[in-house]
Amino acid sequence: GEDVEQSLFLSVREGDSSVINCTYTDSSSTYLYWYKQEPGAGLQLLTYIFSNMDMKQDQRLTVLLNKKDKHLSLRIADTQTGDSAIYFCAELGGSSASKIIFGSGTRLSIRP
Amino acid sequence: NAGVTQTPKFQVLKTGQSMTLQCAQDMNHNSMYWYRQDPGMGLRLIYYSASEGTTDKGEVPNGYNVSRLNKREFSLRLESAAPSQTSVYFCASSDFRVAKNIQYFGAGTRLSVL
After folding, report:
1. Are B76 and B34 in contact (CB under 8 A)?
2. CB of B90 within 8 Å of any CB in chain A?
3. Cis before residue A112, ω within 30 degrees of 0?
């Protein structure tokens, strides 16, 4: 079945780059997403990438997609304290037009 | 533009009590979803409604029922609450006719079942 996996925790120093990794199983995924959840709030879309793209850059965010290895990563440059949150990887699978499969989330903490 | 609104924000129930979680969206989306979030388990889909008048089970539907009251509203009902249903519940909506199918989330309902 469809599955999305990511590590649970990441700790980086303020000003360094953060790289959050994700693997997925559905080779027919059309869109892959990164959502951000701040404490006590719902999820908000951070960025997304279409499956025929390898990379997408949006200000401090860089998304890399390796379709062969079914690997997605999110790089946050110059990580700030406001980036502390849980980051969810998600995929829009080919088997259902409406269902999105979410990973378990990576909690990013920032060290001074 | 409120987006997705969930009520209540917090709720404490005793085992066996029933309650309904309400969700409304004002983005004219066709699809609506209910998830639960538990530590270390990410989001698990309980039920979804691809369009008005249809509902389907997700990954963890047992113990829950849903109603797609109209295009705007999608409610989640716990008929007989159990401690295992202590969780944070999120409602989301999307328009899957738009290729990206981005989901928009409410702020969540924090439910404790004692």
Report:
1. yes
2. yes
3. no
